[in-house]
Amino acid sequence: MKHYLLTAVFIAFSFTVSFAQKFEGLAQTPPMGWNSWNKFACNIDENIIKGVADAMVETGLRDAGYIYLNLDDCWHGERDSLGFIQADPVKFPSGIKALADYVHSKGLKIGIYSDAGRKTCGGRPGSFGHEYQDALQYAKWGIDYLKYDWCDSYDINPVGAYNLMRDALRAAGRPILFSMCEWGSSKPWEWAAETGHMWRTTGDIFNCFDCVDQHPGFAAYGVLQILDMQNGLRKYAGPGHWNDPDMLEVGNGQTVNEDRAHFSMWCMLAAPLILGNDIRSMSQETKDIIMNKEVIAVNQDSLGVQGLRFAVEDGLEFWFKPLAGDDWAFCILNRTTEPREYTIDWQKFNLYDDVAKRFTDFDSKVYDVRNLWTKQAEGNTKKVKAVTIPGHDVVMYRLKVNKKGK
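RE: above sequence
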């Protein structure tokens, strides 16, 4: 009898939300937080997650804007007799609700992971056929963010699958940020603005700046490879709906230059800033990168426009990102391993951004130049500027209109 009642409830929910939309008002700027996968993969438990929650507060990460603490794959146990998912009783003996309460007590939000297929990528139970049950369970537990993967998804339509989970989350009634991890296979940027708050544009990142990790049937990509895959996508991003080039590998063993370049470019892309390192034992260099408030401000800018790669020259890339208040972020990326000297002639960068509908107007405006990594003022755009960009690194500026034109 219980099974029939449960089915009736789900059918009622389905009719109620047949034209449901995602929760509005979430992710007005790119989400910031931490995810367990890049560092821990399946080796997570409640003590690790509580320790990370403590560290997010103690290090200042929470106050810098990193508010989501997200469990990735392998938290799952089995489904109960009615089909509701349970936590692994060995790894999470107190249960997810108690863990969520702990995370919330720290002034943080908690995220969880599932999959549109029959099994998750780590072989745990997926949500296929249990979408409404899982959404109800997440709401009951107090979940704030769902990463929804795409493994074991043969014969499943991605548009239908992701819209179904969106509707289930809406029916459950708790505002949950919906992070779609479909790897960009069906071009979700073309259809998912009303489905999710962010969508993966590529396969997985891995801890390398410039390489491809090829496996049978799939590949993982370095920072530069994923950066290149963002070409042509900027017009689809904006407040409440973001392109997601995957999580950050900052602090996982690349050089300081590479970590700085990686973080800078994700900020220029208006990408979600989801950390993937062990924040309980970070170096000062890593802290200085991921908690640079002026660089984070470029990412979190209220205008919500993704950066533009304007030109490429001799291994250098020149990026602009329009910011609120007529400011611009300007970043030079050195893709080579050797330092490059370059003289910036601002007149070469008179451009029109057809997404922001704005000109740089270097020929008629003077901008004050601030280096966001040295945190120093470096003159203005009236004169050419000589710079040296180290290998696999960036120089990054904020350009602010000088109202006096001086």
